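#structure-requests
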Amino acid sequence: MKQRSFLISCLLALSGILIVGSIYNSDLLVKLNKVNALSPNLIAYNIESLDYYSPNDFIRIRNEYENKDIVGLLKINDTNLKVLVTQATDNNKYLINNIYGERDVRGNPFLDYRVNINSSSKLLIYGHNSDTYDVPFKELENYYDEDFYLNHKYIDLITEQHAWRYKIFSVYVETENWDYMNLDFKDDEEKYNHFNDLKNRSFYDTGEEISPNDNILILQTCSFKNEYANYNKKYLLIIARRVD
């Protein structure tokens, strides 16, 4: 029973964050905390050695995994973060299922169902974190250290149609304001103010300039930083703008 309490304790209640009014629905979080107890004897997450670097490889990838939900490959050079990204018709499926479609509390990093990976100007990718098991987005907690950021500024996202590079402009932990998930803006001014607000929340100044024409990527995972231990909801956000 003790081991169950050390499973992924901070789950991403993504479908419970309602954009309208930025109201947080905690019912999903309660439900998913119960799911955590399903598999107390999981082995450590195996970061596969992925060799898919060409957008033309996605038919082969989907066939190998027997999963049409695979939409991209996310990686940060010189780190352990190199993982296939999935997308379902909701933000629930890959919270509790792995890339093979099997029930697994570690889930699989996934793209928000509301966006198109090839055409949307703002992408959100979510993944679990754990203080017990190795999961891909655990690597993101290294970004608390500015020196780590200085040596790992770029995020690569490869899709069936594109090979994009993003440069990080903000790193912070959010505990109560979910407006970073907003996708709709009435005009460029509102969009720019939104991007600028995300930049200003950063732990450190990255010196990056932003504009309302930017295409941005947000990676979200739970935070295990000690100073946020007393918060029920604490999400580490790595936010980047497309540069290539």
